Amino acid sequence: MIWPAEAIWEAVAPLLPGFTLEVLPEIDSTNTELMRRARAGRAEPVLLVAERQTAGRGRMGRSWESGGAIPALTFSLGLPLNPANWSGLSLAVGLSVAVSLHPELRLKWPNDIWLGERKLAGILIETASIGDRRYAVIGVGVNIAPHVDYGLRTPAAGLQQLLPQVDAPQALECIAEALARSILRFEAQGFAPLQTAFHALDLLYGRELLCSDGVTGIARGVDASGALLVHTGVGVKKITSAEVSVRPTATHP
Ligand code: BTN
User: How far apart are CA 161 and CA 146, in angstroms?
Assistant: First the structure.
């Protein structure tokens, strides 16, 4: 694959001093690698792209599959980050990636990007302490081709359903600069200024949800901190991503 490394570097380096971009043919996981580096004291801003991950990781200890013949775009952006409040960062990242890629994409709280009723992309954010600073590793996986059914999981959507000629390098070029800007804006201002933009792409709004803690209710958007609001029989429940995962109880074509 041919990656637009220079163009991305030129766009992102002025925003993140010391920024480097690395493309590896194969690694276990770009998140795992940047967390290893952070634990070894390396805190520079870096965009690490892998053409193939052998042990891609998802949220909640799940694995993340990169698809078949046409591999997914898999990368992690690592950078020192010091927001006053971390809540809503994954929503800010999802919003930036979705808006950069295509207007038909929607956001499934807390950090999935969906096309119709199928997941197109996922986000895994981890942090490490380096001295008295925090280093964030923001991992993004975007399916390029739709997955063929595997196991019991719902087949995933692919960006080529919307943009038939797109490949992983082009998708990264669409995402990278806007993502760096969004993260810096989040660091300065938090999630609150993004609440309206998130609402416009909110896949869950108005749908009946089943939370992994057993609570059911109707999704009513997110608050200024990015917590999901669920109307239950006994009032509004605020859900933070650390607590539960959610899934719609019914699908609407
Ligand atoms: C999820 O949907 O649960 C999150 C998926 C995150 C996948 C990306 S691919 C690049 C980075 N490296 C990983 O091992 N995971 C993230």
Answer: 7
